[in-house]
Design a protein that fits this description.
By secondary structure, the chain is mainly alpha-helical. The chain contains 13 helices and no strands. Helix 4 packs antiparallel against helix 5 and helix 7 runs antiparallel to helix 9.
């Protein structure tokens, strides 16, 4: 029997054909139609929206970069908010992520830590930003605190899950040597989750760069306040300039994140970043030198 025939005999259909799945999909489709009707979604509104969007976009171009000082000041503040919130959130999320791992901690320790992480993830950053604006006033501090809470929720959850997926054999082997708990973490747990943690941290920085614009709309600092004011003044060409600048900032952040992952995970040198290629090609280049 060929491999194709063996696969077909095991899984003849790509999707389950039992009655429960069919009923579930049918109920979901009915609810989607019902929800669309309740939300007053219609093709007439979509067509009218497309006409409004065409007029809106026509007023956005060409972009107006004349107020570059205001633009760069807002972008710089958004970048500072994102970096500070990411750094603070990651540092605070690490202990909660560790304490929440059920394969390392007893239940009376892991469940309170998980509760803190769940609370940090319960609300959107904009909602948290409104609370902090009321607490500490308008400005960047409220944005930093709001995105720090969001970072604790995101990094804490993913770091806990990563620790719970580690190979327990390596951990038990180090425990068998009589090593203290800190050594178990340093040599049995962290090496298994380090690469994933770098990915989590770089993604959170990218997320905070985007969210720093959103929290700014409610007065928590950054370019969001400038963007909201431009919309209020119907200054759409300046809005286009802000949006283009935000796209450039996010793309630059993605390049930095990629470089960080290659340095810490692939062990690429700074010179290797500019040469391009794979880590194996860099090793061959070093051997040739």
């Amino acid at each position: 029997m060929s491999a194709t025939q063996a696969t077909a005999s095991v899984a003849p259909y790509a999707f389950p054909k039992h009655r429960t799945a069919q009923i579930t999909f049918a109920l979901l489709a009915v609810y989607v139609v019902y929800a669309a009707a309740q939300m007053d979604v219609s093709w007439e509104r979509v067509r009218a929206g497309l006409d409004h969007a065409a007029r809106f976009f026509s007023r956005m171009f060409p972009p107006n970069f004349e107020r570059s000082e205001l633009l760069w000041k807002g972008l710089a503040e958004s970048l500072q908010i994102a970096v500070l919130a990411s750094a603070l959130g990651i540092v605070l999320a690490l202990p909660f992520g560790l304490l929440g791992a059920r394969n390392l901690m007893p239940a009376w320790v892991s469940w309170p830590a998980r509760l803190v992480v769940v609370l940090a993830r319960s609300f959107h950053p904009v909602v948290v930003a409104i609370v902090f604006v009321k607490a500490v006033g308008f400005g960047a501090l409220a944005g930093i605190l709001a995105l720090t809470v969001a970072s604790i929720g995101f990094i804490g959850k993913l770091f806990t899950e990563a620790i719970e997926e580690v190979s327990i054999r390596q951990v038990e082997a180090i425990r068998a040597t009589g090593a203290p708990f800190t050594s178990v973490l340093a040599f049995g747990v962290l090496p298994q989750v380090f690469s994933r943690f770098i990915g989590f941290a770089t993604y959170q920085l990218d997320s905070n760069l985007r969210n720093s614009t959103m929290v700014g709309i409610v007065g928590a600092g950054g370019i969001g306040g400038t963007l909201f004011a431009a919309f209020q003044r119907f200054d759409y060409d300046f809005v286009a300039a802000i949006l283009i600048s935000l796209i450039a900032l996010i793309m630059a952040g993605e390049l930095v994140a990629t470089a960080v992952r290659r340095i810490f995970i692939d062990n690429v040198t700074l010179a290797g970043l500019f040469r391009g290629g794979t880590p194996e090609s860099h090793e061959r280049h070093l051997e040739d030198d």
